[in-house]
């Protein structure tokens, strides 16, 4: 279990680049539309070279042709409905608030469990049942979220209600879209593709939506500046390629186990720490208050408790079902 967690932590570090640079681009006058679309457009050549070098593109293309509607739907959900709202929020709220609100994904990922099924062995034979919400891990996710809220409490009083709504509500949409799209694509692929293939496939499938958004951005705010293209390129490599591949690899290692999957997704709570330190380094952001430091300690403690609890064995879900559920 240590390897998926470490991969998740590394992914959180590279994902934090998104929040810092998106805010930086907004402060320099760049449009959120280009911040969103350029990241995925610029990801394509990097991922394409990797997949072609591994001679895996034909297998990916064959898989995408089997379920084109599924690839379009879940790529739109996992990439477009995830990243466009994050970039939109960066136009109205500082990076620390966006990163802090994003940690709701810790809860969102757990609450999505009933949307998925697993096959279990029962006295009546194999049966598909809904995944239960992992309440045991959810308790420690709430501890992590409490730490995040403590970190943001003082800063949140410095922004207007409008900034709060426009900077928070779109992120809440993203917190559900990202794990839902990721898990549904894992379910669709059933382990037939590696992480690089899956990320490239989802990126290619989401391109039509990014091109449409780019056309709107061209009309609404004109072409992107050279500085925004460069920063979007950095985000594409660090967050879009490196972080996404690391995170998808971590979730691949624990797919089928909602308890461990929730733990891997909980590692993303560290993004707020990395984003905070990143903003302090390159943007005019005040140092954390004493309350914020208590929040940091709470997040770390929640991560440790979540990790320890996830190692305890769980009784098979099949034997927890009612007789009517088994026979029905």
Tell me what you see in this structure.
Helix 4 packs across helix 9, helix 6 crosses helix 8 and helix 7 runs parallel beside helix 11. The chain has one domain. The two termini are 35 Å apart. Helices cover 76% and strands 4% of the residues. The chain contains 14 helices and 2 strands. It is mainly α. A two-stranded antiparallel sheet has the order 1-2. InterPro entries: EmrE. This is Multidrug resistance efflux transporter family protein. Keywords: Membrane, Transmembrane, Transmembrane helix.
What is the residue-averaged pLDDT?
A: 82
Q: Over all CA atoms, what is the radius of gyration?
A: 20 Å
Shape: globular
The helix/strand series, from N terminus to C terminus, equals HHHHHHEEHHHHHHHH
Number of separate structural domains: 1
Transmembrane segments: 32-52, 72-93, 99-117, 137-153, 159-178, 199-217, 229-248, 293-310
Organism: Weizmannia acidilactici
Keywords: Membrane, Transmembrane, Transmembrane helix
Pfam family, one: EmrE
């Amino acid at each position: 279990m240590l390897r998926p967690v470490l991969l998740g932590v590394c992914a959180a570090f590279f994902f934090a680049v998104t929040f810092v640079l998106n805010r930086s681009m907004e402060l320099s006058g760049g449009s959120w539309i280009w911040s969103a679309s350029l990241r995925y457009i610029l990801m394509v050549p990097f991922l394409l070279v990797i997949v072609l070098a591994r001679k895996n593109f034909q297998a990916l293309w064959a898989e995408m042709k089997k379920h084109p509607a599924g690839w379009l739907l879940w790529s739109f959900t996992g990439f477009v409905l995830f990243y466009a709202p994050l970039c939109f929020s960066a136009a109205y709220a500082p990076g620390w608030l966006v990163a802090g609100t994003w940690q709701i994904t810790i809860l969102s990922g757990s609450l999505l469990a009933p949307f998925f099924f697993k096959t279990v062995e029962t006295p009546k034979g194999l049966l598909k049942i809904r995944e239960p919400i992992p309440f045991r891990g959810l308790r420690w996710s709430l501890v992590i979220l409490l730490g995040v809220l403590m970190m943001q409490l003082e800063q949140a009083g410095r922004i207007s209600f409008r900034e709060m709504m426009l900077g928070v509500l779109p992120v809440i949409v993203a917190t559900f879209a990202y794990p839902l799209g990721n898990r549904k694509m894992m379910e669709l692929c059933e382990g037939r593709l590696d992480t690089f293939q899956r990320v490239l496939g989802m990126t290619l499938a989401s391109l039509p939506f990014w091109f449409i958004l780019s056309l709107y951005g061209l009309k609404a705010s004109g072409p992107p500046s050279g500085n925004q293209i460069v920063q979007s390129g950095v985000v594409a490599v660090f967050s879009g390629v490196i972080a996404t591949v690391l995170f998808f690899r971590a979730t691949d290692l624990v797919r089928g186990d909602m308890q461990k999957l929730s733990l891997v997704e909980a590692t993303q709570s560290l993004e707020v720490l990395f984003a905070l330190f990143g903003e302090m380094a390159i943007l005019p952001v005040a140092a954390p208050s004493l309350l914020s430091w208590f929040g940091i300690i709470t997040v770390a403690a929640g991560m440790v408790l979540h990790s320890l609890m996830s190692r305890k064995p769980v009784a098979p879900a099949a034997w927890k079902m009612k007789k009517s559920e088994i026979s029905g």
